[in-house]
Here is the input.
Amino acid sequence: MRYLFGLLLLCQTALALAQPDPFPKVAASYLVEINGVPVWERQSNRRLPPASLTKLMTALLTVEHGQPQAIATVSLAATQESGTRLGLKAGEKFHVKDLLAAALIASANDACLALADYIAGSQTRFVQLMNRRAEKLGMLNTHFVNACGHDADNHYSTTHDLALLANELIKHPPITELTAKTGARISTLDGARSYPFASKNALIGHYPGALGLKTGYTPRAGKCLAAYAKRGATQVLLVMLHGYERWWDAVDILDLAFDHARHPA
Here is the structure.
């Protein structure tokens, strides 16, 4: 696969958006940026379910409206979240930064909804904030109906829009400090319970320069990924929706992007 991608790369220009699709079997939609400039894409404006890449918006609103050391109380609704979760208990109190770590590193839906409740008082009001922020970012083909990324009618985004969101989020260094971790442990304020968790991102700790950002999977969305890596002055962002061989393909594309940055066509 690397050999095939290498041959295709030789035919690309520095801006290959107008060129034939270089990675047709990678994902239903993808976008690759080098230092903020798009270089390769496939159907980057196609509306698709974003799965837990939705949590990138939850994280952005948390850093913009919340305080890391503020205290958030886990609601009953948060404990009833489905999918990936830590098993938080209603009434438990955490620092916001710890819930954010759980939502981004472990993709914990109970922590995610606890953040939504903390910021807006309810998921309904939080989703309104999500869509307003998406509009301000120019995410014209995005609409959210929940905070965590569950499959739902009218819950969609695009790789183009998610790249806009990711670039806004990485302006906040504490985010990549979190998403670069291979795991963490959070504890309730009273110390009665603690919750260890590992990163869902197979690139973290294994791919040189990988700093995050988010993985996602649902039956409707398939395998999704927002991969961010930095080597020296070069930054590469890959956003993939409905991917196939997600991790192997991500490694190949990131490698080629760094090679392309060193030796542009």
